[in-house]
Specification:
The chain is of the alpha+beta class. It has 14 helices and 18 strands. It has helices at residues 2-22, 66-71, 215-220, 317-322, 339-360, 364-378, 380-406, 410-424, 430-433, 436-439, 441-454, 477-494, 501-518, 523-554, and strands at residues 80-84, 88-93, 98-108, 116-118, 128-133, 136-139, 146-151, 155-164, 167-176, 184-190, 198-203, 223-228, 234-237, 246-259, 263-269, 275-282, 293-300, 305-314. The strands form 2 sheets. Strands 5, 6, 7, 8, 9, 10, 11, 12, 13, 14, 15, 16, 17 and 18 form a 14-stranded antiparallel sheet that branches. Strands 1-2-3-4 form a 4-stranded antiparallel sheet, with no helix packed on it. Helix 5 packs across helix 6 and helix 6 (364-378) packs parallel to helix 14. The longest helix has 32 residues, at 523-554. The chain is elongated and about 100 Å long.
């Protein structure tokens, strides 16, 4: 019992430390009102350093060089073109041939500004293009393009063209009308061959508009994500980049994306192609939170053409999965070496929750309750076996203590102890294996921590008195109910058990510790854990009865 007590205490301390570091309770702030501009002006941003002919160019400069500025035409008034499809409204500017606004029709802006979700901030284009050819780089973000628009039953097509120097650059957007391809569009282009290898440098936006009631939590989630072809997906939070700090992510990469808590914009080279490398740079900070950074993808141009897909929309797991190229890993669940364990578990949990929600036609609150009960029932046989092993361990404790007192020689003492185990039919490792049922749900609990951080399917979902299961319980009813149910579970488990001061102390400490840990966590997570505790009460009561019968027989 002592070994299990210290092991349980150690595990609980780990849970508390990790959860407090990874998921600090955010404080909600009031976001400033942002005017809704129908036509946005495109502000020039970073200009590149001169690339070599043999290697992908590294984008390092934050302002255009005089040589590059001299090559740029005079900027004319921006002309905005809107493309409306069932799920989104895209606005493109002729300056830089860039999308400057993407309004998502199915999601409400939950900040004080209200309205629909718009991913773009005023003056910040959602994509920027620079052409690196030979020893020269041309910034296309300030270049006025001419537009030819066409459409058919399948798609809307915008073809932008401009002559820069002696080169004609063409950038084409194809926006599908099909709802199955919602939130995605195809980008392709044609540029003349230059001296040596030619690259298109594609800049992602330096930030995304905050559309959540809790803007701090949304801003803390701002990050660039990427997927190496032969490694797990990675993520770099804006907050982990110091101002001006530059990180080079070597390729080949399957995709590069910028994301907030629930929304993402990513560029995905088409099958057979890849991003050569990516450059991530920390932006200036005007507050404690890091809300700006820059990310650039280096895409090689082959046979004077380039092409990639753009996904700009909610982080709905099923839609991300349909994009292919492992884009569903845009939220790499877990950290460090545990990522390989937690990410598959989290992905399967999300799939299971979605499946139950769709098949049973129940709200996600009831689905979480059912999940907690099912996991507890699945562990019932293992818990039963462990509990009975614990009973046997309690029975042989006096004999083990007697053997330890009788034999002082370590070898004789070990032989006597093993004889006691053998006669009782108990494994010497029963004390440790008895903790296994408590350890098995841990990966699921850790995975759920991550699931509730970015699963947009839970966003704004009400349940009973909760207005949103993805945020904390405003009345703290569920955390307190979870702690109370954990205490009752421990109290029943202590009935008819031999006196144990450590276990008694743990009966009081552990519920309090878990209540503190989960107090500001998502209410859905507290709902799941409470359901598990309540589902475990019958088994704990049956164990207490079995222990009472065994005690009566011995007496």
């Amino acid at each position: 019992m002592d070994k299990r007590f210290f092991l349980a205490l150690f595990l609980s301390l780990i849970v508390i430390a990790i959860s407090q570091v990874l998921f600090p309770p955010p404080k909600a702030v009031t976001p400033p009102a942002t005017p809704a501009d129908s036509v946005r002006s495109v502000t020039p941003v970073a200009a590149p350093a001169t690339p070599t002919a043999s290697a992908p160019p590294a984008v390092v400069s934050s302002t255009p060089s005089p040589a590059d500025s001299a090559k740029l035409p005079t900027v004319t008034a921006a002309e905005s073109t809107a493309v409306a499809v069932p799920k989104a409204i895209y606005n493109f500017s002729n300056i830089g041939a860039a999308p400057v606004s993407i309004v998502i029709r199915d999601y409400q802006n939950r900040s004080l500004t209200g309205g629909l979700v718009d991913l773009a901030l005023p003056g910040i284009p959602l994509l920027g293009f620079r052409l690196a050819t030979g020893g020269d780089t041309v910034d296309l973000r300030r270049v006025p393009f001419s537009l030819v628009r066409s459409s058919d039953a399948q798609r809307e097509t915008l073809t932008y063209s401009a002559t820069v120097g002696n080169q004609q650059v063409v950038i084409t957007y194809a926006v599908p009308r099909d709802t199955a391809a919602s939130y995605s569009l195809q980008v392709s282009g044609r540029v003349p061959d230059g001296a040596g290898q030619t690259y298109m440098l594609v800049d992602l936006p330096s930030s995304l508009r905050s559309v959540e009631q809790d803007t701090v939590a949304d801003q803390q989630s701002l990050a660039y994500s990427f997927k190496p072809q032969r490694d797990y997906a990675g993520s770099v939070l804006f907050g982990s980049l110091d101002p001006g700090e530059r990180r080079l992510q070597p390729g080949p990469l399957k995709w590069l994306a910028v994301k907030s808590k629930y929304f993402v914009l990513g560029i995905l080279p088409q099958t057979g192609a890849s991003i050569s490398e990516a450059t991530l740079t920390g932006g200036p900070r005007t507050s404690k939170a890091a809300t700006n950074a820059s990310g650039t993808a280096v895409i090689p141009i082959s046979n004077e053409t380039f092409a990639f897909d753009v996904y700009a929309g909610p982080q709905e797991s099923q839609r991300l999965f349909r994009m292919g190229r492992e884009f569903d890993q845009v939220n790499p669940y877990g950290w460090g070496f545990l990522k390989g364990v937690l990410h598959p578990i989290a992905s399967e949990i999300i799939r299971g929750l979605l499946w139950m929600h769709n098949r049973l036609e129940l709200s996600y609150g009831w689905v979480l309750i059912i999940l907690g009960i099912l996991i507890r029932l699945a562990l019932w046989p293992l818990n039963q076996s462990a509990m009975r092993s614990s009973l046997k361990m309690q029975e042989i404790q006096p004999k083990l203590q007697a053997a330890q007192k009788k034999y002082k020689d370590p070898l004789q003492q070990r032989e006597a102890i093993m004889k006691v185990y053998k006669e009782a039919g108990v494994s010497p490792f029963a004390g440790l294996t008895g903790c296994l049922p408590a350890l098995l749900p841990m990966p699921i609990l850790f995975a759920l921590f991550f699931v509730f951080q970015n699963t947009i399917e839970f966003r704004g979902v009400p349940f009973m008195w909760l207005h949103d299961i993805s945020v904390k319980d405003p009345y703290y009813i569920l955390p307190l109910l979870m702690g109370a149910s954990m205490y009752v579970l421990s109290w029943i488990g202590m009935r008819n058990a031999p006196p144990n001061p450590q276990a008694k102390m743990m009966m009081y400490m552990f519920p309090v510790m878990m209540t503190v840990v989960l107090l500001n966590m998502a209410s859905g997570l507290n709902l799941y854990y409470t359901a598990q505790n309540i589902a475990a009460l019958p088994q704990q009561w049956l164990l207490a009865r079995e222990r009472a019968k065994a005690r009566a027989i011995r007496s």
